[in-house]
Structure formats: structure tokens, C-alpha cells
Amino acid sequence: MKNFLTVLLASSISVSAAYATKIKGKVLDGQTGEAIAGATVFLEQSGLSTKTQLDGSFEFKGLSAGVDRVHIKHMAYAELIKEIEIQKENTPHFIFQLTSTEQTLMEVTIKGRRNGGDDDPSARRLEKNASQIMNVVSARAIEISPDITVANVVQRVSGVSIERNSNGEGQYAILRGMDKRYNTTLVNGVKVPSPDNKYRYVPLDLFPSDMLERLEVYKSLTPNMEADAVGGVVNMVMKSAPTKLLLQANLATGYSQRYFNRDFGSFSTGGTSAKSPYEQHGKNYNATAADFNKGALDYTYKKPLPDLVGNLTIGNRYLDDKLGVILGASYQNLHRGSRSIFYKSAVVGVNPNAVITEQSDRQYDEQQQRLGLHNKIDYRFNPNHRISFYQMYVNLNNMQLRDAVNTIYNGQYDPSIGKAELTYVTRSRKTQQQIYNGTLQGDHHFLDNRLNVRWSGVLSSARNQLPQNTMISLDGVEENFERKRTSLVNKSPVTYRWERNTDNDHAGYWDVAYKVPMENSKLELSTGGLYRDKQRSSFYNNYNLSPASAEEAKYKYGVDFQRYTDLNLTVTNPTGAVANPLTYDAGEKTTALYGMFNYENDKWQMIGGIRMEHTNQNYKLLFPAGEKRPEGSQIYTEWLPSLTMKYHLDEKQQLHAAYYRALNRPGFYEIVPSSVVNEEFLEKGNPDLKHALADNFDLRYELFPEASSQFLVGMFYKKIKNPIEYTFQPDEVRKQDVYYTPGNFGNANNFGLEVDYIKYIQKFGVKANYTYTHSRITTAKMSRRINETTQDPEAIIVDQTRPLYGQAAHVANLSLLYKDANNGWEGQLAGSYTGSRINTVSQFLNDDLWQKGFVQLDASIEKKFKAGWAIFAKANNILNTPMELYVKGTNPENEKIAEKLIEGGNTLIRKDLYGQNYILGLRYSFSK
């Protein structure tokens, strides 16, 4: 009987299992068809619940056949309740469409918020509907990425590589192989000035990434966009007021692996004056050693405090949704550093035919304090009239201590000799960079919404300060492989330098658009323009200090003095050196007008027109000091046509083509006839430098099979007239001096191929892109030949064709994504590859300095909890990828070098190592 019951029970279980079934389905946005991730799906009868995955899919297993009631909930949508029939087998996949809770709002709100680009589906929709060829990174993608600055976020975009600073962090964007000088940076569509002391381009590491609603990269232009963007445009769209109460906050801490086993070098910045003695006391003042704060020479070495990263955003709408307000603040306090080893020959420049005789071993320690503040207030008078005021302030303080040991060997570089001449050079530098932008905008509609008038008034300012940049040099000796600091160098062992520059922009924009009534198609005619007055001031001053007596110059470090603050110094140039070409005023007035049409029907969209930009750029040296051209100006007008066409093959795929002409203006520093001693070489401006012009062509196939997925493949071509490149050139008067200076070099060509792919399958996703770029430019180089008569070597000038500066032939990104909506896990592993590219253009033939191709691997993970809480972690530079510079070729004597600098016929010139960085934090998000 017992065996019979066992068999009967087993049979019952088998029958039940046989009739158990499963169902699958997707949850979509009823308006856009986008997949909705993170929606809760609940079955009444079974009591089971789950959440939709990255592609909006869900699945239930072990269900009984019959009728059940499904409940679907999502915070941004109205709840859906519906009866479903579950069949014994082969139940058709269910498709559920949710209705947005914002449908009750007026049309402009739906358009503004549902297209906000703050999540991946919205970002894909923006790319699909955009007039320009562009890529978008959503706020959510930024939030869960390993990146905490805009500079590192932008490297994930196809066709974009980044230039890193001395501590390994991303700083500048290179778009489609075009150097950073060819790119424009916008905030909410408005150009911002740069705090850089030399160039126009904006360092993107100033901006904390959590300020953004989305990041847009434009790769083609329309006539209503500013034309100074041969490479492209980086547009940071900042967070705007939400439709309901929003509170977001995060707090994180971290550490750099570099400081697990070494101390962090720093100095005292207290008491450092932003103004030099010349500015404080007047031009006839004779400075003494007491005028210089000794904190810059007060070095300490100890373990740094943990890093700190924090953000707070709060926003809401008031007065029956007429008034919107958002406030945001972001703060980062990071400790970064690197070790840099630099090899060179005794001759000027790095010549593969020369023997390496020098080495510089540099340790960088840098504290970064990054602050971002922004707020936006908008008021809707009625559906036809709206006004807004936006303010942004970003500030980056860098306190960097660089300790370098410069080694010069007699003859060939050979550390095994154990004896060399040394110089110890320690530099303490505080750099303050800041940007402010205030924009007042109005948007008005008339004639039943056929006439649209938009205007903007903009005040922007950028500032860069290096107060009391201090450098001290000591002689040293190396004996029996032991390096020792000995006495102060004989001439001016201590220098103090003040540098400051400001850019102030006042600009006005206006646009008028009229919709022409038409049947079965749309036509909009528009015109507009801008006027910008940019004023720049630049200041430079330095003082040299030496031992107070000849006897003190012989004092030994560690014997006669223990700390640099103990030194008794005297000022050798008490009135300073303000009388130099780097102290100047400059200005630029830009006037632009455009005319544009926008035609659209069921299959075609065409946008075309022409833009005129008139430029009046000038400079005036405040201390000419015998310069032949103390004042100068460049005045020119360019007419810049463009045409964009988009053909819809069907609802999911389209062809996108574009042509536009763009220009690139020289920076003020580049046209001022100044000369300055840099770390490794001399620099000089070029008042004859011309602006560059480029004709740009694009063709791209675009497929958007699902809301969050895409496949894009395109080609681009750029023909550049008078491209601007930096090269080494001999001075016209002092032939023995060689300067690194900008120049125009005929014509250049740049073409390439881009591929973008994004795909999500349930919990997994992949984002991948690849860009191939090929460019060519021809510049003059110095070479040698044997004189047939005398048989002696002589210098000659030859032309060499090479890639554009900064252009890598291969750039790729691959991110592997994971999201478990039911358990609240989300993470990614992100890899970026940048191929080899020219880092410095040499004056010698076949002597350019190349950066070796590298892979950077980063990762991030997040775990969500109830009530809006989450924990997250980020890891950067996991592989500790170095930055390596090399020249092609080598002298046979360099094969003997102990460090094995020769590989594959190339000679290593520089190697920087940065270490890994980690962050662990807590995030909170509340939306009413």
C-alpha cells in the first residue's frame, strides 16, 4: 500500500509538471514604443512578481494554465491592470503598453521631458530625430559609468579620444582625429570661454559629470550653429527643473592605489598671494625675500586623506507648474599622481640618430579640488511665452608638487657607470581655473504657433591663475649608484612666477522661425545671428632668487640646511620681469548672420542654408620690449554653406547625409609675438598665423531596431585649408634658437569610418564603437645630406607627409553591461582603445614623437535598495596602463642602454605610470 501511494504521488507531480507552463512578454512606452526597464509585473492568482530587464522583457515560469490578472507599475507611468489567458503551452508573447503620467500636461512639457535624454531610450530617440549627425550619452548612462568628469565620459563616444593630463585623468577631447583646437564646447547650446592660458579649447576635466542631464556630441553643423567646429561640438546639457519634486544626492570616498605604498607630496598654500610684489606695491617697488611666502617651499610627505566625492540636486515646479527651479552642487577632492621617466639626447630635440645622454625622473603628486554649482529658473507665462535664467560656476584647484631628478651622463647614457651629474628640481604649483556662465533666454510663439522668436543674453567669464609658481634647483651627484643632493645651483636656484589670464564674453543670440502652411509636408524658414565681444587680459611676471652670499651657495643639503625654508635668499631681479610679451590685452568681436530652411515630408528631411561670420581679432603688448609688432589684428569674413539630408527607409532605419563648411580661429596666445621658455623647449607665437577653413562631408546609415538599441555606420571626409599645426622652427634672427611655434601648412585631408552598436538582451547589454581615421598633411622638416664637393654633411629642408597631430588611426570602445532589475544590481566593464598618434611634431625628418597605442579598462557596479537608496563602486585604470612616447628608429649605440629602451626598432622617450583609482559611495534619489 505504501509503495502504491508513493507511485501515485510521483505520478501526480509528473502530471502537474507536465501542465506547468511559462509566459514571456515586453513592457513598452505606449507613445514612443520604447522598452521600459525596471517596471514591476505582478500576477494576482499566482502571487508572483518580477521586474522588466534592459530590453523591457519579463518571464514567469511554473504557471498553471487559465486566466490571471496582471498588474504593471512604473513610477513614470499610470498603472496597467489587464486580464490575460495562460495556455498550457505556446502562450503567445504579451506586449503591454503603458501610458505616461505626463500626458495630462501641455504639449511643450511632453516634448521637453520625454525627450530629455536622461535615460538610454530617450538618448536613442534624440539621435534618431536629430537634424545633425550626433551621439548622445544619457544622464543614467553617465551615473552608472566609471566616470566622474565630463572628460572621461566623452571618451565613450564613437570617434572621440581624449588627451590625458600629467596625472592620467582625461582633459581634452579629440574628435575624429582633429586636434582639440578644432572642437567647440557648449553649455546648453551656448559657447563658453576657456580658462586655458594659451588656447581656446575648454578643459573638460573642469566639469563634474553628475551636473549633466545628457552629453551631446555633434559631428555635423546646421546654419544656426556656430561654425568654429571643424572636428565637432561637445554640448553639455545641464539638468533642468523636473515636473515634480526631485531630490538626488550621493556621497563617496576612495583612494588611489599609487599611495598604498608611498607618501603623497604636498606644500603649504596658506599665505600665497594671488598678486606679485609688482602688482601689490607698484612698478618701481624693489622686492625682497620677505615678499615671497615660504609655504611654497615647505614640503611634506605623508599618506593622503581619503578622496571625497559628493553631489546634491533638488528641483520642483511651483505656481501651478508655471515656475520651475533646480539647484545643484557637486564637490570632488581627489589625490592623484604619476611617475614620469623622460629620456633625451644632448642635442636640441629628440633625434633618433643621436645618442641618449640624459634622463629625467619625475614624481607628480596632485590634489584636485573640483566644485560645480548650477541653477536654472524658468517661468511659463502661458503656452506661448516662456523665459528662463541659467547660471553655472565650475572651479578646479590643482595643488601639484613635482619632484624631478635630472641626470646627465658624460657621453653615452649608461647607468651602470655609476657616476653622473645630477640636478634636483622641485616645483610647487597651484593652478586655479574657473568658468562662470549666466544665460537669460526667452521663447515666444505667435500667429497660432507659426512664428517662433527665441533670444538669449549671455555673460561668460573664464579665469586661470598660477600664483607664486615656485621652483628650486639643487646640484647633486651619483656615486656607486647612490644619488645625493648636494648644494644649491650656482645661478638663481629659486624662481617665483605669477601667471594670470581672463576671458570675458558678452554675447547676444536671436532666432526667428516661421512655419509655412503646407499640405502633406512641413516647411520652416528661419534666420538669426549673434554678436559676441570677447576681451582677454594676460599677465606674466617672475622673480629669481639666489643665495645671499657666495659662501651660502656652497651650503650642503642635510648638513648646512635641512629644509628649504631655512635658506637665506636674495632677489636678483627686484623689479620683476613683467616687461615681457606675455603681458598683453586682446579682443575679438564676432558677428554672425544665417538664413536656413527646414523641409520635411513622410520620407525626406532637408535642412540647408548659409552662415556668415565676421571676425575682428586684435592684440596689444603692454610691454613691447623692442618687439617689431607690438600691436596686430586680423579681420576677415567667411560665408559658410551647409546642407543636411535625411531619408527614412522605414520607421526604424534611415540615411543621414551632411555637408558643412567650418572655420578654426587662432588663439590669442598663438598670434601674440611672444617667446617663453617651457620645460623641454622654447615656445613662440606667430602673428602671421591664418585661420583654417574646412569642407566636411558625412554619410551615415542609422538603424534603431528597438528603443534602446542601435546600429550606426558612417563615413566622413574633411578637406582642410591652412590647417594649424605646431612644429619646431629655427628663429629668423638667432639661428641657433629653435622654437615650438604654430603655422599654416597648405592643405590637409582627413577621412574615416565609424561604427556604433548597442544591443540589450534581457539582463545583458553591449555597447561598442570603432572609428578608423586616416589623415595626411605635408610640412617642411630639417634633414642632412652629404655635399658632393666637400663630402661634409649639410642641413637641408625637405617635405614630409604625415598624419595630423593627435590623430589615432584606430579608436574603439567596448562596454559589457549587466542589469538585474529584480535584485537591483547594475554594472559595467568598460574598455577604451586609442591607437598610436603623434604627440609632438619635430623639426627633424622622421623624428616626430609618437604616443604608443593603449587600452584603458574601467568598471562600475551599483546595488539598489528600497526607498531610493543605492550603493555604488567605481574603479579606473584597472590595468595601470602607462602613457609611452617613442621615436621611430634608433642609434645603434642606444641598443646598449640597460633600461631596454629599444623595441621593434623604436626608441622609448617617455613613460608615465598613474596607478589605479577606486571610489565607493552611497546614492539617494527621491521623486514625488
Defining traits:
928 residues; mainly beta; Immunoglobulin-like; Ferric Hydroxamate Uptake Protein, Chain A, domain 1; Maltoporin, Chain A; 3 domains; 22-stranded antiparallel β-barrel; five-stranded mixed β-sheet; 7 helices; 50 strands; 6% helix; globular; TonB-dependent receptor
Rg, Cα atoms, Å: 31 Å
Look up the CATH topology of the largest domain.
Answer: Maltoporin, Chain A
Oligomeric status: single chain
Task: Provide the low-confidence segments as ranges.
Answer: 4-18, 102-115
In total, the number of domains comes to 3
What is the assigned CATH homologous superfamily of the largest domain? TonB-dependent receptor, beta-barrel domain
| Main beta sheet | 22 strands, antiparallel, barrel
CATH class designation of the largest domain: Mainly Beta
Global outline: globular
How much β-strand is present in the residues? over 45%
| Mean pLDDT rating | 88
> Which architecture of the largest domain per CATH?
Beta Barrel
Family: Belongs to the TonB-dependent receptor family.
Pfam families: CarbopepD_reg_2, OMP_b-brl_3, Plug
Membrane topology: Multi-pass membrane protein
Protein name: TonB-dependent receptor
Question: Can you tell me about this structure?
Answer:
This protein is mainly beta and 928 residues long. The protein folds into three domains: 21-98, Carboxypeptidase-like, regulatory domain (Immunoglobulin-like); 120-240, TonB-dependent receptor, plug domain (Ferric Hydroxamate Uptake Protein, Chain A, domain 1); 251-352 and 371-927, TonB-dependent receptor, beta-barrel domain (Maltoporin, Chain A, Beta Barrel). The chain is built from seven helices and 50 strands. The N and C termini lie far apart (63 Å). It is found in: Cell outer membrane. It holds the Pfam family CarbopepD_reg_2.
